[in-house]
Amino acid sequence: MNHDAYDNAYIAGILNSVKTIAMVGASPNDVRPSYFVLKYLLAKGFSVLPINPGHAGKEILGRTVYARLADLPEPVDMVDIFRASAAVPGVVDEVLQLDPLPKVIWMQLGVRHDEAAARAEAAGIKVVMNRCPKIEYGKLSGEIGWTGVNSGVLSSKKPIMRSGFQSFGVRQK
């Protein structure tokens, strides 16, 4: 897979299929990007399980924090990595020990590790690198356009509302 550019349909397919997300590197500090991404994803109806060994047993936004992926009480569809690129191989090692395996490993903006991505893909896991699910969701749902940002996605179609939430769903082609 070419990880330099992603087709909107690939990202939309992921965001529409994922329900439960483990966020590795989640922070309780409300000015950290992981905090507001976690808050945003919760508001969009995703179940997010924070992973941070320094805060294990505490809560972030009402969600129990776990020390590592192996401690999660339920399977996850996606692992969102908010760690430096050098930490990615270790996280992928942890992911590959999970049963069942998640569908997706997502690396945040500035995070990329091609060898670890290849190992994950060889195990059947989709990979996204150097992207933010909050930004991609906002772009593909049309929300980001409300602030005057050119998302590159134009549609005259009426927005689709997700049931139970006051938010737009991600439109697939």
From TrEMBL:
Gene3D superfamilies noted in UniProt: NAD(P)-binding Rossmann-like Domain
Organism: Mesorhizobium robiniae
Protein name: CoA-binding protein
Transmembrane annotation, as ranges: none
Domain CoA-binding: 14-111
Superkingdom of the source species: Bacteria
